[in-house]
Amino acid sequence: MSHLLENWTGRSVVVLGLARSGVAIAKLLHRLGAKVVANDVKPRSACPEASELEALGIPVICGEHPDDLIHDGVEMLVKNPGIPYRAHPIQQALALGIPVVTEVEIAGSLSQAPMIGITGSNGKTTTTTLVGRMLTRSRIKCTVAGNIGQALADVVAHIGKEEWLVAELSSFQLKGTERFRPRIAALLNVFPAHLDYHETMDDYVQSKRKIFANQSAGNVAVLNADSQICREVAETIGSTLWWFSRTSPVERGVYVRDGVIHVKEQGQPQALMPVADVALRGDFNLENALAASAISLAAGASMDAVAQTLREFHGVEHRLEFVTTVAGVRYYNDSKATNAQAAAKALESFKEPVVWIGGGLDRGVDFKELVPVLKAHAKAVVTYGQSKQILAERGRDAGLTDVHVVNDLGEAVAKAASLARDGDVVLLSPACASWDQYTSFEERGSIFKQAVHRLQI
């Protein structure tokens, strides 16, 4: 990495926002010789990472964004992905012409390993996890990182040219990229999401599109042929296209025909496996399975390894995760469903009557797309959190009479258990972010599971 040290030595960099990726990129750039200052608006008591950085000699400013944080001498601002661009230091940097990027931009430029980037409104974590397992089963070395697991900045210093870096990437991360170029890039789907951050659907789509922006003909782009937006994005891509589809054959990629998954690269398509043998349930998970198969095959995985992984993989934590059965009722944790589209797909995965638990951060969404899904799949609705009233209203719009509003997730589980009968499903699929009451969807899902297990006591 000596040539990289020459590039960063003495450069003045501000890292805005601590947390996992901020700490990782601050440490990495400090090791490369940059003059790093880290800043977080949270009070020092809420920044436990500050001491770790200060012990390395990195100045940390907590509790405010000082007016002199950004100045002509700053050469780059690396922002935490979740910090909106309207934040004062970012506006200052942009006004001064200082590049504003995310950790992904830096890590991508430093990585010696070929990268696989995976983005989409829904299904990123499941697809990324599947790709990692398919490559590993094919005896292809890989490391999974990004928006899942390790920060990219923690990985790039240790991963070599001989293995793949498989990265789950959010629109927040991609918006702050300029030259980032994964060797294989995938766009799973695009639904209205995070519009409180992006403000317009166009900005959201353009942020997702950035994953392909610097690809060339020698790279691979994997897209969902069943998505109109993905097809429109593909028209501007200069890399080799691979497609996946649940509904129709594709020129190159992975698709379903007559209940069988097929693979078509060159020549005649080959049967991979029956759809019925895929362990994950639900149409949306079938899409994830097809996407992961296309990505992995493009990266050199064997068809046998891909098929065997799909037969054995039952899902990731907090994504339509089976918790347990209590009194004949099955409980599922889908805490990662942070938008209405993800919740709708989860509800559609069940033929059994569903007691649905939804709620969380109120982003001003009307949730009207949930009405027909609730009408078709739910027997009762329990809502909590900031969005509880609007979600309860949607339950009533669906014609349901069993609609209940409670204060928190613990009360929601207790109420759902009282409504469910032998053979029913209780599904936490919130359709909202967790931040009104919980620090993350992981914490929310864990609290749900704890509450479910207490029902057995």
Automatic annotation (TrEMBL):
Domain Mur ligase central: 118-295
Catalysis: reaction(s): UDP-N-acetyl-alpha-D-muramoyl-L-alanine + D-glutamate + ATP = UDP-N-acetyl-alpha-D-muramoyl-L-alanyl-D-glutamate + ADP + phosphate + H(+)
Keyword Cell wall biogenesis/degradation listed: yes
Subcellular location(s) per record: Cytoplasm
Superkingdom of the organism of origin: Bacteria
Pfam families to which the protein is assigned, alphabetical: Mur_ligase_C, Mur_ligase_M, MurD-like_N
Sequence similarity: Belongs to the MurCDEF family.
Residue ranges constituting the Mur ligase C-terminal domain according to the UniProt record: 318-432
Protein's recorded name: UDP-N-acetylmuramoylalanine--D-glutamate ligase
Role noted for this protein: Cell wall formation. Catalyzes the addition of glutamate to the nucleotide precursor UDP-N-acetylmuramoyl-L-alanine (UMA).
Species per Swiss-Prot/TrEMBL record: Laceyella putida
Enzyme Commission (EC) number: 6.3.2.9
GO MF: UDP-N-acetylmuramoylalanine-D-glutamate ligase activity
HAMAP family in the record: MurD
Entry-linked InterPro entries: Mur-like_cat_sf (IPR036565), Mur_ligase_C (IPR004101), Mur_ligase_C_dom_sf (IPR036615), Mur_ligase_cen (IPR013221), MurD (IPR005762)
Keywords attached to this entry: ATP-binding, Cell cycle, Cell division, Cell shape, Cell wall biogenesis/degradation, Cytoplasm, Ligase, Nucleotide-binding, Peptidoglycan synthesis
Pathway field: Cell wall biogenesis; peptidoglycan biosynthesis
Cell cycle among keywords: yes
Gene3D superfamilies linked: Mur ligase, C-terminal domain, Mur-like, catalytic domain, NAD(P)-binding Rossmann-like Domain
Residues reported to bind ATP: 120-126
